[in-house]
Amino acid sequence: MRASLIQIAVDPAESPEARRARAASLVAEQRGVADLVVLPELWPVGAFAYESFEAEAEPVTGPTHDAMSRAAREASVWLHAGSVVERAPDGALYNTALVYAPSGDLAATYRKIHRFGFDQGEAVLMAAGEELVTVPVPGLPLGLATCYDLRFPELFRGLVDAGALALVVAAGWPARRREHWTLLARARAVENQAYVLACATAGSHAGVPQAGHSLVVDPWGEVLAEAGDGEETLTVDLDPALVATTRDRFPALKDRVLGLSAPR
User: Fold this and answer.
1) pTM score over 0.70
2) CATH label of the domain that carries residue 203
3) What's 81's DSSP letter?
4) C-beta neighbour count of 122 within 10 angstroms
5) Could you say which DSSP state residue 260 is in?
6) How confident is the model at residue 55, as a pLDDT?
C-alpha cells in the first residue's frame, strides 16, 4: 500500500472555502499515486483559532464532507480528511475526524477523546469523544487518533487490541514542542509494533507557529520519511506484512501484564 500525507498550511488570509477547494485539488493529485491519503487536524479553520470554532462549526455532512467525499471518489483513494469542528445535533462541538472510502462514502468518524488546553481553549469549547475507532482498510486496518491523543499510550494500545496495523494521527502540533511530536510518534510505533502515519499542519494558527514535520514510522521505529516545516506531501510505501514480521521476531506484545493493581 502507498500512503501520502499532505502537510497543508493554514493561512488566515485564505478562506475556509478556498482552502477546502485547494485541499480537494491536492487530494485529486494523488489519483494513481497513493492508495491512502491523510490530511491534518482542523485544517479548514486552524487548530488554535479558537475564536473561529463557533462560526466555522459544521455538521458531519457539511461543506468539508461534501468536498472531501468528492475528492476521495475522484482520486479513488481511502481518505483520512483530517478533522473538522463538528456541530452535533444537540449543539455541542467536537473535534471530529472524517474518513472516506474510495467510493466517496463516509467510512468512519472519530471524535477526539483527549482535548488540549488545560481548562481553556479546545478543552472547554469542545466536548470529548468516548469511543475508539478503527477503519477496516483492506490489508491495513487503521486506528484513529488526533493530535494531543498522541501523549496517551493507552489509547493506542486499545486500537492495536482492536486490530489496527497502522495508527493515523492528524495534528495541528505547535512548533515549540516539535521534538515531542517526533519522539512520541516513534514511541507509539515501537511500543505497538505498528506503522504510525502522523500528519501535521504547516503555517501558523492564530499566531501559533506549527511544527510541520509530518512523518511515517515503521513498526520497528524507523522513520521512513519526514517533512520539513512548510507545505509538503510525503509519499511512502507501506508493507502490511512488516507488522506481523516485527511482532513475530520480537514478540513483546505477548508479554504484556494486564490488570495490574495500584500499590496499597
Assistant:
1) yes
2) 3.60.110.10
3) E
4) 24
5) P
6) 96
The reply to whether 254 falls in a domain is: no
| Contact between 162 and 137 (Cβ < 8 Å) | no
- What total number of domains does the chain contain? 1
Q: Kindly list the averaged pLDDT for each block of 10 residues, start to end, along the chain of length 264.
A: 97 93 97 98 96 97 98 98 98 98 98 95 96 97 98 98 98 97 98 98 92 98 97 98 97 91 83
**Residue 204 corresponds to which cell in the numbers above?**
501558523
The single residue of 86, 147, 199, 232 carrying the catalytic annotation is 147
Half-sphere exposure of 34 (CA within 13 A, CB side): 24
Q: Is 199 a catalytic residue?
A: no
**What residues contact residue 11 under an 8 Å CB cut-off, 6+ apart?**
19, 203
Catalytic residue among 41, 56, 122, 232: 41
Residue of 56, 58, 86, 112 with catalytic role: 112
Q: Assess if residue 83 is contained within a domain.
A: yes
Helix intervals (H) in 32-152: 53-56, 63-75, 122-125
CA distance 238 to 247: 16
